[in-house]
Amino acid sequence: MTSPSSRFNTTFRPVSRLPSKQLQHLFVAKPFSSLFIMTSHDSVKTLGRQIWLNKSDPEIRIYYMECLPPKDKKGTILLIHGFPQSSYQFRHVIAPLAQAGYHVIAPDYRGHGFSSHPLGDTGYTKKQLATDLFQLVTRHMEITEKIHIVGHDIGGMIAHAYVAQFPDHVASVIWGECPLPGTTVFDNTKHTQTLWHFDFQSHHPAFSAALVSGKEKIYLKHFYDRLTQNSAVFTPEVLDFYTMQYSMPDALRCAFLSYRAFETDAEHNREWRKKNGKVKVRSMVLSGDHSFIATEAEGMANEMYEDVKHGTVENSGHYLAEENPESFVKEVLEFIEA
User: Fold this and answer.
1) Nearest to 301 by CA among 275, 283, 326
2) What radius of gyration do the chain's Cα atoms show?
3) Residue 159 to residues 3, 103, 144, 230, 284: CA-CA distances in angstroms?
């Protein structure tokens, strides 16, 4: 691996489909057919791609970023984002993980980011979202070996649903920064003031989305301000980017539907544990050292996993990969390579 200071010398280049001129200065213009390209000093490239899980009605289209290692491949890492974010949250860590020898995949799951926002109110259980990503990896990318999964926030819930359903396809799982449905922590916190948005977004998603529509920047900024230790990372440009994504037609509705599915997710998680026992795949629950849920993370994970390691991203609140990408990469690599 290269030194930390050089590994994180990354720049973004063109995105031809950004609709707002105020975002164009984030990228250096260069024609490339609606794809993100992120390059680093040693020419590791992150490409934006998309596949169709379903071309008929409803159209299910999954956008993902992909980065190949410069030399021999050690394995595959699947990064799963949270709310209110997208695969963009991993922009600082994709290249360093690839430079360490891994094929890195960071999708926008169904209804989020640049993926399609299908009509209808179904398809947002973590079981279904995990199945979508399993199909992306195995059927469309034809990856047959066991992969490493890293999930954050809602992505942590999806990571659990992935390993619970497809354990033979998972080498290790890292997840965290979420009260996992079906656990005691989830039951004790889901109606608290700290997690007020669980109720607001889940009971009537379409109505809640209508209330937030037109005020997306205010709404998103509330979460970043409240849960971040290193607030400087959420620059006006980053806030504009996320606002653009969540201002797309039906983006809020789809995001809120993933919250409405929490009780069903809890049932699925308890059913999998009853049928198969605790997850036996190597696992780590990953928290920021200033996260509101850090002290309860290991106990929560022990309810669902046989052997749990608790990792900590230093000088970070909730948004680990953005607040301290170097510590995030260090924790991920040390665990999967142990």
Assistant:
1) 283
2) 18
3) 30, 18, 18, 25, 11
Question: Which pLDDT does position 55 carry in this prediction?
Answer: 84
pLDDT, one tens digit per residue, over 240-251 is: 999 999 999 999
Q: How many CB atoms lie within 10 A of CB 241?
A: 20
pLDDT band for 16, please (50, 70, 90 cuts): very low
Binned at pLDDT 50, 70 and 90, residue 42 comes out as: low
The residue whose two tokens read 């707002």 is: 20
Side-chain-facing half-sphere of 155: CA atoms under 13 Å: 31
Query: Which letter, b or e, does each residue of 260-293 get, where b requires 16 or more Cβ atoms within 10 Å of its Cβ?
Result: bbbeebbebbeebbeeeebbebbbbbbbbebbbb
What are the pLDDT digits (tens) for 327-337?
999 999 999 99
Residue 21 makes CB contacts below 8 A (sequence gap 6+) with none
Please give the Cα distance from 246 to 32 (Å, whole number): 24
Q: How many CA atoms lie within 13 A of 278 on its CB side?
A: 13
Distance, CA of 104 to CA of 114 (rounded, Å) = 18
State the DSSP H helix or E strand holding residue 67, giving kind and residue range, or none if neither: strand 60-67
